[in-house]
Design goal:
Structural class of chain A: alpha+beta
Distance between the termini of chain A: 8 Å
CATH class of the largest domain in chain A: Alpha Beta
Oligomer: homodimer
Number of domains of chain A: 2
Shape of chain A: globular
Strand content of chain A: 25-35%
Helix content of chain A: 25-40%
CATH topology of the largest domain in chain A: L-amino peptidase D-ALA esterase/amidase
Order of helices and strands of chain A: EEHEHEHHEEEHEEHEHHHEEEHEEH
CATH architecture of the largest domain in chain A: 4-Layer Sandwich
Number of helices of chain A: 11
Largest sheet of chain A: 8 strands, mixed
CATH superfamily of the largest domain in chain A: L-amino peptidase D-ALA esterase/amidase
Largest interface: A-B, 70 and 71 residues
Radius of gyration of chain A: 22 Å
């Protein structure tokens, strides 16, 4: 279960200040892990607005089903997260488990059930010991605090480091904070399902506006990363806004006053997503793929993901091999419009293919140096339009197989 | 370049008799490899009908483009195959190279250019030394023979064993032969592009009927195998019928007289496809995935391929782990209709999940024994309809990364 820290891990967590209207507490409920925290309770101020995006999996977990339903109210007072059991593929038992957790939390905090959000991550298919979770809740409530680092740690499964991002923006001249924590080390963990991310802000922005922004930026942030092409049953990103900042409330996502907030939100989402890729199972290199010249942003992303998900491209990068023939292959299999005879590729800024053929006599030396580094840049122009997108992934190493081939403990 | 023979390789090639109307010769043209054969010339009798299926890649190779065009005539007299260079992503230079090869072959054999088929396999993006190929052709013509084993060897790239299948069927009481050779060890080889397969029969079946049958059986044979989800630039299957058998010619694919021929053709196609999976890069286990209860055969296949391509499922199998939670995940990400609460899974014939939840107390012992073997069987019922399909793949082992992470030599 314990793997070495990713070589791409940041040196340290950023300093994480309190966010007005948000208090947290973590505990060790022993749902699956021993001797570590595995439960997070977040209490939010009355008037907190909420928005969310979830996995598109058809076998999604019971907590995801619940959050999608609760989201309709647009309000939140509590978030309960556990690590160790995903409560996925647990049928009616799983639904009942979520119901008990929601009821207990609502009663404890004196809020309505629709204001309680639940996220679970860990093994799939095993009934969850939610009695241990609900038993821990009163103790957590009694020690709510501002320790965000502890929160980032409590939600980890096979993550090799805790992940958090913090930024500020101004609305009407008033500084607001956007702060998020996330977990994930593959689209799915070794039996441990998934990416869970939570973003908190003290801004006063209405739920529909939050949802519009979250939905808008998800394709180019969370949906533009891939570790292993496997989509989890539990992927969840929830954005909470406590409205504790002193500016006048904003109702419309397009409001001019939100321009700084929008930039900061997209940056937080992208940085959280990148923290997940950098902790991708077994990764030794971060790979950034810029696709241009596509029919649309959507098709550019699809082409980028075809390259990012190709095991042949990923194993070549792991070996430091600038194997652009495999990139050509992956573009071809994407199924999206591309002009074979205009296709151009550069690696680390050096053009290796142009207009559908190899660049004769390109200098291999700077490319070899680039490929030996941690930060690989691939640019692909498919020659049919103006659509562009950036996609991030890691390389595919022996450690991926070690991590995922170890028997469920 | 030299890897140990796959543990799934058959003990030996079958005995491969002559096929009336087909003669072959192999040679060492030194296009890329030293000290081995790398060119195959096949001459077919006048009146040979032809059908083909090709890669759907948008970056397909120059030889694929040529074959698709030549196919329109429905006739064939020659097939030229080389190993070592795929002549893919070579632009106008690649087209000119194919043109020269076709012209030289047509002149040598006294046939029209549209009757010459060309297939190339090997490294992508490098101009091909077709002068060496054309220089070898007269020598090959002078020694045409019936050595099918030599032919199966000459088309190999990183294949660890030669691959051939032979069958007979009766048409109007007359025995006809169907014999095929194939190469491939991944959807794409380590830089070496691809699966190439050629099936020959002495039956007298018209080209449109051959095409109809080839197209009909491709989805459930060649398109139902996957090694690594990567689609090559060069995938090619061509079926030639020399009409040398003594039965009356058959024009219609649905003709009752073809019932035995149809069964034999599908079996040859499936067996050739399985030979490729069994030589999949690094595979140690053959995995057969039966999907039932889907909305259609097409969606059943898509669900099966989502499971077969999941790196998490494949690494679990490599480790002998009957990790059905990952199978649930892969079904969910397929995007195809499935009823989470009716989903059932069995492994090695033992039900592990039923109606959307774990089977309580199933016996792990027979499953562990099954997972330790070479032949893994997974059955999935998705609970929405009557569509079914079978998909074949291998496991994902360290050797896959070794093979594909070795620098282009």
């Amino acid at each position: 279960m314990s793997h070495p820290v990713s070589p791409l891990a940041p040196a340290a967590l950023p300093s994480l200040p309190a966010v007005a209207g948000v208090r947290l507490a973590t505990g060790a409920a022993g749902i699956r892990y021993k001797d570590r925290t595995d439960v997070l309770l977040v209490e939010m101020a009355a008037g907190t607005a909420v928005a969310g995006v979830y996995t598109t999996s058809l076998t999604r977990s019971a907590p995801v089903d619940w959050c999608r339903k609760a989201m309709a109210g647009g309000k939140a007072r509590a978030l309960v997260v556990n690590a160790g059991n995903a409560n996925a593929f647990t049928g009616k038992i799983g639904e009942a488990s979520v119901e008990r957790t929601v009821k207990a939390t609502a009663k404890l905090l004196g809020c309505s059930e629709n204001e309680v959000f639940v996220a679970s991550t860990g093994v799939i298919g095993e009934p969850m010991a939610d009695d241990r979770l609900t038993a821990a809740l009163p103790g957590l409530q009694s020690k709510l605090n501002d320790d965000w680092t502890a929160a980032a740690r409590a939600i980890m499964t096979t993550d090799t480091y805790p992940k958090a991002v913090t930024r500020t923006a101004k609305i009407d001249g008033v500084e607001v904070r956007l702060q998020g924590i996330i977990k994930g080390s593959g689209m799915i963990q070794p039996d441990m399902a998934t990416m869970l991310g939570f973003i908190f802000t003290d801004a006063a922005v209405a739920a529909p506006a939050l949802q519009a922004l979250l939905t808008k930026y998800t394709p180019r942030t969370f949906n533009s990363i891939t570790v292993d092409s496997d989509t989890s049953t539990s992927d969840t990103i929830i954005l909470f806004a406590t409205a504790k900042a002193a500016h006048a409330p904003v109702a419309d996502a397009g409001d001019k006053r939100l321009s700084g907030f929008r930039r900061a939100l997209e940056a937080v989402m992208r940085d959280l997503a990148l923290l997940v890729v950098k902790d991708g199972e077994g990764v030794e290199r971060l790979v950034t793929i810029d696709v241009t010249g596509a029919a649309s942003e959507r098709t550019a992303r699809k082409i980028g993901l075809a390259v990012a998900n190709s095991p042949l491209v990923k194993t070549a990068i792991a070996a430091g091999d600038a194997n652009w023939g495999r990139i050509v292959m992956a573009v071809g299999k994407s199924g999206e419009k591309a002009d074979r005879d205009k296709l151009s590729i550069s690696i680390g800024g050096v053009a290796v293919a142009k207009d559908g053929a190899r660049v004769e006599g390109y200098d291999e030396a700077p490319i070899a140096t680039h490929m030996a580094g941690r930060d690989i840049r691939i640019a692909i122009d498919v020659g049919v339009g103006r659509g562009k997108a950036t996609v991030w992934t890691g390389d595919l190493t022996h450690r991926y197989i070690d991590i995922n081939g170890s028997y469920r403990s």
